[in-house]
Amino acid sequence: MPATPVYIICSPRPQVGKTLLARLLSEFLLLKNGNVAAFDVNLKEPSLLDYLPKVTETADVIDTYGKMQLMDRVILDDGVAKVIDLGFHAFDEFFKMTDEIGLLKEAARRHVAPQILFVADTDRASARAHEMLRGQIPRMNLITVDNEYIVRGELPPAMEGGRLFRLPALPGFLKTYIDRLSFSFTGYLRQEKDASTELHQWTRRNYIAFRELELSLILQRS
User: Fold this and answer.
1) pLDDT band with cut points at 50, 70 and 90 for residue 137
2) Alpha-carbon separation of residue 39 from 26, 79, 86, 137, 158 (angstroms)
3) pLDDT digit string, tens, across residues 178-221
4) How far is the C-alpha of 101 from the C-alpha of 94, rounded, in Å?
5) Which of 38, 93, 207, 211 is the most exposed place for a label (fewest CB within 10 A)?
């Protein structure tokens, strides 16, 4: 990678699939690179730390000390991809902080490439938050995630114009299966010999989409 990637997965709304996306992405990076540093900024359990305790640590942005600790770990060009699962309760405070410290400029100076993955919903809070991010984050750094399990239709028009990542919906019984704390997407791919199963294809499709996301990041910075 030409720069160390930092993926910030966020939404001002709970229960939109944010931690699911963080799990998928973290497992993909762990499989591909052999390492990943994940940060869990959540109040409600189960959270990313519960699913991937070996590569995840808790963080908070409640006070200045917590903010600086997180930023010191994240804005570090060490070649290890970072994933932040940003809880909805910390959304406003986190992006207020990143705006105040000039995160994107500082990241560019340190050879770090932040990517903000905003998990969409159709409510007013999501619309306002997305509008705020569009004013603060350059187009190439902001990716709108269309979780089909949540949106169940077309994205709001204001969210369709930029970069998109589509997360296909899974049937309810499979969602219950993958919600188990012991479940691993990569483990499933390795153990399930039948590549035609719906979960196998869904996981592979998302892993391929993550790879394309990485390639687009390389092209942007080349």
Assistant:
1) very high
2) 10, 16, 8, 21, 29
3) 999 999 999 999 999 899 999 999 999 999 999 999 888 777 66
4) 11
5) 211
Closest alpha carbon to 11 in 103, 128, 102, 96? 128
Q: What is the pLDDT of residue 220?
A: 66
Residue 135: Cβ within 10 Å count: 8
Contact 85, 39 (CB under 8 A): yes
List the structure tokens of 55. Answer: 């590569």
CA dist., res. 25 & res. 81, Å (int)? 10
Residue 84 CA to residue 6 CA, distance in Å, equals 8
What the block records as the tokens of 84 is 């932040």
Mean pLDDT for the stretch of residues 68-94: 94
CB 168 within 8 A of CB 205: yes
First to last CA, the chain: 10
Q: Are the C-beta atoms of residues 60 and 66 closer than 8 Å to each other? A: yes
CA 205 from centroid of its chain's CA atoms: 16
Closest CA to 61 of 53, 70, 72: 70
Cα separations in angstroms, 100 against 95, 97, 162: 8, 5, 24
Does the pTM exceed 0.85? yes
Q: Are 90 and 60 a contacting pair, CB within 8 Å?
A: yes
Lay out the sheet containing 82-86: strands in order across: 56-58, 37-41, 82-86, 4-10, 112-119, 142-147, 163-167
Tokens representing 68 are 């600086």
